[in-house]
Design a protein that fits this description.
2 strands; two-stranded antiparallel ribbon; mainly alpha; 9 helices
């Protein structure tokens, strides 16, 4: 088995970050209006590179483009709130503020939480015109988990109840194969299943103590393995 040279890998990561820095005009709100999907991915890189305090302005600028309802739009400086963009930006701010401890960011993520909770449908799902109910609900349950962990609110009954209702909705969509599929957005089911395992089922098992969620993870993992082998043989 080939080994990975850590110094070589670190140099590669740094060169990629240097490239992103050279393109700040394409993602930084400090440089103007931006696509928030692109920005939230870069915020993740900043978090992973341990540059949060150095790049604090990138997080703080998100506060200024939050919509009145507590969400964010895909395109900054517009007011058409997107649920999945909202949850991804919100969870980056939650993580970033663990280091920054900025009161305005804290108020912003608290406002995001209230918006998200208010938008849950009767059957437990969350919706977004650009995403399937499965993926959107997955993104929300991820945000709720990150919010609770970073805010030390794992015992918050209101949030726990919302996340469990989201899990119950997702549970009903699992196919006999063990996968989750949406014929419009991700008909193969691999991407959706992977997201749900990571962001919804694991929290349901470890935080909400839902035993069946653990079994669903194993079932889905076995289904993904069978699908991959079939593709290799085909």
């Amino acid at each position: 088995m080939a080994t990975i040279d850590k110094e070589e890998l670190d140099a590669l990561i740094q060169s990629e970050w240097d490239y992103l820095e050279s393109k700040r005009g394409k993602w930084s709100l400090l440089e103007g209006k931006q696509d928030m999907e692109v920005l939230e991915h870069v915020l993740r890189c900043i978090l992973h590179m341990d540059l949060t305090e150095e790049k604090s302005g990138e997080f703080k600028e998100c506060v200024k483009v939050q919509n009145p309802d507590g969400g964010w739009s895909k395109e900054s400086h517009t007011e058409k709130t997107s649920m999945w963009i909202t949850t991804f930006v919100g969870l980056k701010l939650c993580r970033g503020n663990m280091a920054l401890k900025d009161p305005e960011i804290q108020a912003t993520v608290d406002k995001t939480l209230e918006y998200v909770l208010s938008m849950q449908e009767e059957d437990g799902h969350w919706s977004d015109a650009e995403w399937s109910h499965l993926d959107t609900t997955c993104s929300v349950t991820c945000f709720l988990t990150i919010y609770q962990v970073t805010q030390d609110k794992t015992d918050d009954k209101r949030i726990n109840k919302a996340r469990v209702r989201g899990f119950e909705f997702i549970k009903e969509w699992q196919k006999d194969s063990g996968l989750w599929k949406d014929e419009t957005f991700h008909p193969a089911g691999i991407e959706t299943t992977a997201h749900l395992m990571q962001y919804t089922l694991v929290p349901a098992y470890f935080m909400d103590k839902i035993e069946y969620a653990g079994k669903m993870c194993l079932q889905a993992a076995l289904s993904r393995g069978r699908t991959s082998r079939k593709r290799q043989l085909g």
